[in-house]
């Protein structure tokens, strides 16, 4: 154990360093698997290929050792399963840094919050393009049990904040009493399974 203020690397970087071997699943995985806390075991990374050279990395972390500094105000950090998107990185100095970059995947894109990025027991994450659903069955200090199954055939409807674009210069000079015309476009970002939506614009 340590009082060091630096938490553990993600499992992808540990795999690149040769400290653990990922459990590699097919692009459309099925079945049930157990992830050990990555601080204490090499059985802590599930890798799902995404394209030719990238992958989904799935890991479980516990407030153990270096990771004991996990912020207690964010309990999901200590109780949930992480999803990361790993992709190659053309590092000009590969001796000093890993050859992969990882991005934390938002497991709940339907919400604007950054405090629910992880999957807790009973929650699911679906990739309709890759046709699989990941579900966290249970979590304990000893590990996390997850399952994979094919994605539902229909994408459920959930609402995403629309995209607003103003086609104009950054600054518009308007004298008192003058009217300036600008072009505004709104993009509905909801899944195609949702009905048409009405948006109200206010100044």
Detailed description of the structure:
It is a single chain. The chain is mainly beta and 203 residues long. The protein is built from two helices and eleven strands. It has a five-stranded mixed beta sheet. The protein is elongated, with a radius of gyration of 22 Å.
Detail the poorly predicted runs: none
Which structural class do you get from the secondary structure elements? mainly beta
Strand order of the largest sheet: 1-3-4-5-6
Largest sheet: 5 strands, mixed
**What's the rounded overall pLDDT mean?**
81
Provide the descriptors you would attach to this structure in a database record.
4-stranded antiparallel sheet; 2 helices; 203 residues; elongated; mainly beta
Concise synopsis of the structure shown:
With 203 residues, the protein is mostly beta strands. It is built from two helices and eleven strands.
Q: How do the strands and helices of this protein lay out in sequence?
A:
Elements: H1 11-16, E1 23-24, E2 31-35, E3 45-50, E4 54-60, H2 76-79, E5 81-88, E6 100-104, E7 124-127, E8 132-140, E9 143-149, E10 163-167, E11 183-187
Parallel strand pairs: 1-3
Antiparallel strand pairs: 2-9, 3-4, 4-5, 5-6, 7-8, 8-9, 10-11
């Amino acid at each position: 154990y340590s009082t060091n203020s630096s938490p553990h690397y993600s499992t992808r970087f540990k795999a690149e360093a040769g400290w653990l071997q990922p459990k590699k699943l097919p692009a459309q995985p099925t079945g049930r698997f157990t992830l050990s806390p990555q601080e204490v075991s090499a059985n802590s990374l599930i890798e799902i290929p995404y394209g030719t050279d990238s992958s989904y990395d799935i890991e479980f972390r516990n407030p153990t050792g270096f990771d004991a500094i996990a912020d207690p105000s964010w309990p999901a950090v200590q109780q949930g399963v992480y999803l990361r998107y790993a992709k190659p990185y053309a590092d000009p100095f590969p001796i000093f840094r890993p050859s992969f970059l990882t991005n934390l995947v938002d497991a709940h894109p339907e919400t604007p919050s950054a405090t629910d990025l992880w999957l807790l027991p009973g929650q699911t994450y679906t990739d309709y393009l890759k046709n699989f659903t990941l579900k966290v069955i249970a979590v304990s200090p000893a590990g996390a049990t997850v399952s994979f199954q094919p994605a539902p055939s229909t994408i459920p409807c959930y609402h995403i904040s629309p995209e607003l674009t103003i086609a104009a210069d950054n600054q518009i000079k308007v004298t008192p009493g003058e009217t300036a015309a600008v072009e505004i476009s709104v993009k509905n970002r909801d899944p195609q399974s949702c009905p048409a939506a009405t948006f109200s614009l206010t100044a």
